[in-house]
Amino acid sequence: MLADTAYDVVVLDATLPDADGFVTCRRLRSSGEWTPIIMVTTRGEAPNVETGYESGCNDYLTKPIDAVALLAKIHDYLGE
Fold it and tell me: Which of 21, 22, 13, 20 is nearest to 54 (CA)?
């Protein structure tokens, strides 16, 4: 989808039905895509957070999501 449409921010779950969000993030980064990525997941353990940042995400939030915090991060990336 990112190849066909420009996005300002991507919110990506680490656990996807047909794929691993960490792998998806790595693929986006290896393709040269530098849209900010906010990883959202239930995986809050330190090794998973480290994997998230190593995969190329800009931010890592754990569920349950604080909607205000998520919106603040999105607004930061949008420059608002």
Answer: 22
Q: How far is CA 7 from CA 2, 14, 33, 42, 66, in A?
A: 7, 19, 10, 24, 22
Question: Is it true that domain 10-78 has CATH number 3.20.20.70?
Answer: no
CA 56 and chain centroid, separation: 8
- pTM (2 decimals)? 0.87
Question: How many residues does this entry show for the chain?
Answer: 80
The predicted model gives 48-65 an average pLDDT of 95
Domain assignments of the chain as residue spans, ordered by start: 10-78
Distance, CA of 77 to CA of 16 (rounded, Å):
23
